[in-house]
Amino acid sequence: MIYYVPTIKSEREGFERIAALASDAHDLYNAHLELSFSRCGFFDANMASPLASVLARIAADRFNRVEVVDVPTPIEKILCKNRFLVSYGYRSIRDSNQTTLPYTRMQLSDEGLFAQYLKRYMKARESPGCPWQWANISDKVCSRFFRML
Predict the structure, then answer these.
(1) Structure confidence at residue 51 (pLDDT)
(2) 8 Å CB contact between 68 and 85
(3) Which of 5, 7, 8, 106 has its CA 20 to 30 A from that of 72?
(4) Contact 76, 45 (CB under 8 A)
(5) Domain ranges of the chain
(6) What's the CATH code, domain 2-94?
(7) What pLDDT, on a 0 to 100 scale, did the predictor assign at position 37?
(8) CA 41: distance to chain centroid?
(9) Mean pLDDT in order along the chain per 10 residues (149 residues)
(10) Are 64 and 32 in contact (CB under 8 A)?
């Protein structure tokens, strides 16, 4: 099956488009999913996590092989910087400007690991021009995030 990834932004429509992939691949079993980005004009890097969640279910739960192809250079660059594409055979790109958060897969039970992740990567991005102080709100963000789940 070939699935053409449309433009995905961090908004309701972006989540709906990722959900459409899950629906379209629902009956795929012990097969090959070719995820083509050839029709994707833009992909928000933070949407890699919801996409990865869907792809993990397609691959692991239904014994499918997932291949990511035809990724436009700007999208490939950002998804290699955050290391999302690495598990699909792409090479990691060093993020020397620290503009991405590394993609990491966690389980719901990994609350402590998630808190460590936020502290490690958000702390590194604090700057004098930042309108908020991460250290003051990190514990609240973690606890509220896990209450939502």
Answers:
(1) 96
(2) yes
(3) 106
(4) no
(5) 2-94, 106-149
(6) 3.30.750
(7) 98
(8) 17
(9) 97 96 96 98 93 93 95 97 94 84 71 70 54 53 52
(10) yes
